[in-house]
Write a structure and sequence with these properties.
Elements (H helix, E strand, L loop, with lengths): L27 E3 L5 E3 H10 L20 H9 L1 E3 L10 E3 H10 L4 E3 L8 E3 L3 H7 L4 E3 L7 E3 L8 H86 L1
Protein name: RNF41 ligase
GO molecular function: ligase activity; zinc ion binding
Keywords: Coiled coil, Ligase, Metal-binding, Zinc, Zinc-finger
Length: 244
């Protein structure tokens, strides 16, 4: 939608009006047939149509282009009243600068910045409203450190609030201790299983070494027996030699 033509001071050229809403062009685009539209208006039109609303020539959204520079300059030079005129603002400025003015206008209706407050108030009166707003917050004057809403002043009890916070901290600490305990138990179980596994491996290795030692001792005994047998055979051969 365009700017309400009633807001403008003086004559507005017909070529600067949207061909759809018939208000002064806002964020304008131009078709190849040179008819101009507000961006929102022509986009909405092309959802259901495929032609120009003025001369019915076929157009596509990809063919839309910004206004010619001279038309854009003429548009920006138009003078209009602030949208907050009905609230008391008497500012008249160019279309090019109206958005900047209205963002900062003292007569603009803005929401209260306090959470929970639904009041809409003029920017120039905001400070006064914030001073008395029932949703304004402040630090407890008794020194407990809590931020309280003015509406809760009569209900605020420092001792009760601190006791509640202490209970929450205690519960949180108990939960953290339990979590740490479970984590340590889990780690100990894991280490215990690891140690049992290592012990089993070491035990198997010891048994294997014992088995190897037993085989070696058996081999040594066999060698010693063979050596005795060989020595006896040598002694017997020596006796036989002497007899001969």
């Amino acid at each position: 939608m365009g700017y309400d033509i009633e807001r403008f001071v003086g004559y507005v050229n017909e070529g600067l009006l949207c061909s759809i809403c018939r208000d002064v062009l806002e964020d304008p685009l131009q078709a190849p047939c040179e008819h101009a539209f507000c961006t929102a208006c022509i986009h909405g039109w092309l959802v259901h149509h495929s032609n120009c609303p003025e001369d019915r020539q076929m157009i596509d959204i990809s063919l839309l282009r910004p206004l010619y520079r001279y038309m854009k300059n003429d548009l920006n030079r138009l003078q209009l009243h602030c949208k907050n005129r009905e609230y008391g603002c008497d500012m008249v400025c160019s279309l090019e600068s109206i958005d900047r003015h209205e963002r900062e206008c003292e007569y603009s209706q803005i929401p209260c910045s306090n959470a929970g407050c639904t009041v809409q108030i003029e920017r120039r009166n905001l400070d006064g409203h914030l001073a008395v707003c029932e949703y304004r917050s402040r630090e407890c004057p008794n020194g407990c450190g809590y931020t309280i809403l003015s509406a809760e002043d009569t209900q605020h009890n420092c001792v009760a609030e601190l006791r509640t916070e202490l209970e929450l901290l205690r519960s949180e600490m108990i939960c953290r201790v339990e979590e740490a305990k479970h984590e340590m138990e889990s780690r100990l179980d894991s280490q215990r299983r690891h140690m049992v596994q290592k012990e089993s491996i070491l035990q198997n290795e010891i048994e294997e070494l014992k088995s190897q030692m037993s085989r070696m001792m058996s081999d040594v005994r066999s060698l010693m027996a063979a050596e005795r047998q060989h020595r006896q055979e040598l002694e017997q051969a020596e006796l036989e030699k002497r007899e001969l």
